[in-house]
Hints:
The chain contains six helices and four strands. It is mostly helical. Helix 3 crosses helix 4, helix 4 runs antiparallel to helix 5 and helix 5 packs across helix 6.
Amino acid sequence: MNFGHSANNTNRDLGMLHCLLSETSYRINSTLSINKYTSDNSCLRSINRGGFSLKKVSRVLLQKSQEAFLLALEIYNKPTITYRIEGFSFFIINAWELLLKARLIETSGNEKVIYYKKSRGQERRSLSIEDCLKRVFPEDNPVKKNLDSITKIRNAATHFLVEELEVIYTGLFQSAVLNYVTYLAQWFSLSITDRCSPAMLSLFTDVILIPRE
């Protein structure tokens, strides 16, 4: 994995993606929350000239996080899969949870930060996505609100059926994808498009198109 990836590639990739998304307008009641990439990497514990020096567990978390992210995209962009809303919500939340845990470890310098305190005889449990979000983002942060909504969909899918309202979910899901790309680059100088094409980041769905004036 290349932890010394520059911001230029990420800015280029996001620019290409915005061009793809602006081709049509969607009837979706959801606002994309895309934070501009900044080069502030002071939060990381240590930086080498060749790139970031991360703890081993953080590297594993980031590797698995990106794999979960790519699985989410692959599932959603296959229209023949009828379980894609549920499948996407499972994997995108897993990808974000692992990313957030890597973030917590690197900002604290302590691998134990991702675990709950336990009593003697109890098994050690890692933080839930909800608690990871609370420790990384303010309560009113739009990224947190977006992921809280998708977490509810995932939880509902775990125990019951999710109503197939794809037009409503697409904007919510697309926002989570773009935010993931942004924070992966901002926090760890990694570009997901080293592993997939920018076109893959645009979620495909059957929606009502609004003619452009």
